[in-house]
Amino acid sequence: MRWSETYIPTLRETPAEAELASHRFLLRGGYIRKLAAGIYSYLPLMQRVLLKVTQIVREEMDRAGAREVLMPVLQPAELWQVTDRWQTVGRELMRMRDRHDRDLVLGGTHEEVVTAMVAGELKSYRQMPLNLYQIQVKFRDEIRPRFGLMRGREFYMKDAYTFDVDEASQAVSYQKMVDAYFATFHRMGLDVTMVDSDTGAMGGKRAHEFMMRVATEGGEATILSCDRCDYAANVEKAENAGGAHAPGNGSAPLTKVDTPRQCTVEDVTAFLGVGAERLIKTLLYVADDAPVAVLLRGDRTLNALKLQHALGATVLDMATPDVIQKVTGAPVGFAGPVGLKGVRIVADWEVPGVVDGVTGANEKDVHYKGVQYGRDFQAAELVDLRDAESGEPCPRCDRGRLETYSGIEVGNTFMLGTKYSTALGANFTDEKGQEKPCVMGSYGIGITRTAQAAVESGHDDKGIVWPYSIAPYQVMVLPLNVRKAEIRTAAEQVYAELQAGGFEVLLDDRDERGGVKFNDADLIGIPLQVIVGDRGLKEGKIEIKVRATGDRHLAALEEVTATCSRLAALLTGGKGEGAEA
Ligand code: ATP
Ligand code: MG
């Protein structure tokens, strides 16, 4: 492909809205353009990357025995009402109404549709295991679309669904998908770890996420893993070891103290000269319309998912200042459990262990000190409610400590059990003639997110460094001055030979300065750059630069294709993936 015949609108300036390197480089490299929050166009280079990612995913799914289908994006609301997800997925579900005032959903996932599709037709145990997948656009009304393709409102996903006769058979199907996922990400040059995760609104028994480790703030997920055993979990799910603490043996009397205008943990602890671990913070939530007071140590972070599970709540929101005033009788910042009536109180495991604690006194500008669990207040429930932290004991083994790192979730797998098959009547008859619901699994890979994740893990300060297998082109030819006939001729010859050798080649035929071409080449990140310039040609040589390492190799004109083949083999670990050479 000639640059002049495609569309690569590179930008010199860094777009202000882009926070992540990968987002910046995809915009600057002319890969994507934003239409609205979380909605992007994929320009020619990006479309080529997406097709490659898709192709690798497709090959590995096919190899694992999954069969490709394509299901409707537009779905009737009734389907989602039957499984209750019309409620539980909440505001993330993209809803619309047709001209007859019927509610519709733009699919963000397809458990309902696929189950309804096979219900009544998957009749016998002989038809299973069955694994159906599709690669398709998805819609989700994300609360915070951000980071470019990482969290979009419209994005591409591969979603697969398995149907099995029982849990043992499901476990086999699940493992096949897990193996296929590792193979898929490995082929894309991405290093992923499988971690335990929450099943969320998906329901079901167990779930895992495939996380790509990133060094920066680029990760949206925090992962905790044990330094001794193989425990690894998303922070949403990571457990705290040890169970509920015994009440501390503090003896200080309960005393009111004036704390004028001190309403944050930082303010109060500084004002009273105590550590944040001595403060019992009281957060007010509304769980399915009922107010709840949630207690945890001042130095800890509430885990909203754990709270939602503990409360068994479908919808959980933070209480508004009005509700707080009504429930506690005080403005925001002075809530506390002592004397708090008419509201369910749940506390984190650690709270009873706080000795001579400090809490709000449900009175403006007043706190209590010398607060003791058991003597001054009690919680209806004691549960694990906080985020696990780095350095803490592992919940699985006795000697390990947890370490944290940042990750991007590129895929996940769920054991769904019979939630969807029961709700939608996907039953079969077993060997003994008994009717049973199918045991299901669901498996997603974010196509667009994975493509950007590859950039987040592969870039330097100049631009993208694509993994060879998903690069939009494999080789780029850079004639440094197209006005010179010798350079133009040599470049055309190399371009033709590389294509004949099976390479996907981009020829930068623009009449631009060398500097501009070098910068753009580094920005768009094609793995091999063949540089055709005056200096080399004088000695009959052409320079080949490896984008990833900056290494330069000299080759005679007729050896360029062979040299590129050798370098491609090195880049792909000898497998030569994507290069037929
Ligand atoms: P997250 O926790 O990041 O919101 P999820 O658990 O909602 O992800 P799934 O519903 O299982 O994700 O979707 C499967 C895959 O689709 C994810 O692993 C991710 O790679 C991708 N994905 C999910 N949401 C988005 C999004 N808003 N934009 C782009 N890709 C997404
Ligand atoms: Mg999500």
Structure, explained:
The protein has 581 residues and is α+β, with helices and mostly antiparallel strands. The protein has 3 domains: 47-214 and 406-456, 2-Layer Sandwich (BirA Bifunctional Protein, domain 2), CATH 3.30.930.10; 255-383, YbaK protein, CATH 3.90.960.10; 473-580, Rossmann fold (3-Layer(aba) Sandwich), CATH 3.40.50.800. It contains 15 helices and 29 strands. A hairpin with a 5-residue loop joins strand 28 (541-546) and strand 29 (552-556). Helix 1 (21-28) crosses helix 11, helix 2 (44-63) packs antiparallel against helix 6 and helix 2 crosses helix 11. The protein is globular. The chain starts with 20 loop residues before the first helix and ends in a 10-residue tail after the last helix. The mean pLDDT is 93. The structure holds adenosine-5'-triphosphate and magnesium ion. The site of adenosine-5'-triphosphate (ATP) has 15 residues, from strand 8, strand 21, strand 24 and helix 11.
Question: How is the topology of this model organized?
Answer:
Blueprint: H1 21-28, E1 32-36, E2 39-42, H2 44-63, E3 67-68, E4 74-76, H3 77-82, H4 85-88, E5 94-97, E6 103-106, H5 111-118, E7 130-139, E8 154-164, H6 167-187, E9 192-196, E10 206-214, E11 221-226, E12 232-234, E13 255-258, H7 265-272, E14 280-287, E15 290-297, H8 304-311, E16 316-318, H9 321-328, E17 344-348, E18 357-360, E19 366-371, E20 381-383, E21 402-417, H10 419-424, E22 427-429, E23 435-437, E24 439-446, H11 447-457, E25 475-479, H12 485-500, E26 505-507, H13 514-524, E27 528-532, H14 534-538, E28 541-546, E29 552-556, H15 560-571
Parallel strand pairs: 3-7, 15-17, 17-20, 25-26, 25-27
Antiparallel strand pairs: 1-2, 4-6, 5-6, 7-8, 8-24, 9-10, 10-21, 11-12, 11-21, 13-19, 14-15, 14-16, 18-19, 21-24, 22-23, 27-28, 28-29
Bound molecules: adenosine-5'-triphosphate (ATP) and magnesium ion (MG).
